[in-house]
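Exam revision sheet. Question 4 asks you to relate a sequence to its structure. Input first:
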Amino acid sequence: MKRVLLHACCGPCAVMCVEALREEGLEPSLLWYNPNIHPYTEYVLRRDSLSTFAAQAEVEVSVLDEYGLRPFLAAMGPDVENRCAVCYSMRMDRVAHFAAENGFECFATTLLISPYQKYEQIIEAGERAAKAHGVAFFERDFRPLFREGQRAAKEMGLYRQKYCGCIFSEEERFSGA
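Answer key, structure tokens:
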């Protein structure tokens, strides 16, 4: 059986990704690494929601508990408009590194379930990271499962967020931009 490392941005996005992979005969292990999430209270809510889901779904989870607002902003540099590509690359590189270090054959990400994320940029970041670390990127378009996953997360009592997580999306959320 392939060892699949599934990067998870939160519990709700992991629900249907884990189910879909299990339906393919795969048993994913989850990885929490999300230095983009702001503020710290939101970071903790999402991290803990993933841990709650992992316990309920009986799936292994590793937590790289690195609140990373400063490194995230430093990685952006002056190119705030390209922040999503930078964010995806930052996370996928760390996930691929973890996958290679820990004997996983491939890695995927729950970011591929959200219709609000930039799908092609995620794929590009995943493929670059895979090549750099010698581990395969396991691409799956989980987007058709998004609504079902949100419904299931609500039924499970998981915390569900209202923005992607970064300081810029939080600003957009509250400013109406």
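Marking note for examiners. The mean pLDDT is 92.
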